[in-house]
Recover the amino acids of this structure.
């Protein structure tokens, strides 16, 4: 499926050719880098596709604080979990 935060140029070129669009070339973050970036205020939006992000991370309290630094958090899930209780900062 190509889910990797640092895809190769060859993969991005193939993706662009197959689907007729120009995918972003800037690499993303892995989980730990994402948490650090949220905590530092460098990431404003968190979008989760299932899973219990908060409880699955190495440091739950630090991750909760990081999520609170976001301006918006959104979760797509089939059942509720603790991650849904930590919301983004209010305006």
């Amino acid at each position: 499926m190509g889910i990797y935060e640092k895809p190769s140029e060859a993969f991005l070129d193939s993706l662009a050719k197959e689907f007729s669009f120009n995918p972003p070339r800037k690499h993303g973050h892995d989980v730990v880098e994402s948490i650090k970036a949220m905590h530092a205020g460098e990431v404003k939006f968190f979008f989760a596709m299932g899973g219990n992000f908060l409880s699955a991370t190495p440091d739950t309290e630090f991750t909760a604080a990081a999520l609170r630094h976001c301006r918006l958090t959104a979760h797509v899930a089939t059942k509720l979990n603790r991650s849904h209780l930590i919301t983004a900062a209010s305006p």
The chain has four helices and two strands.
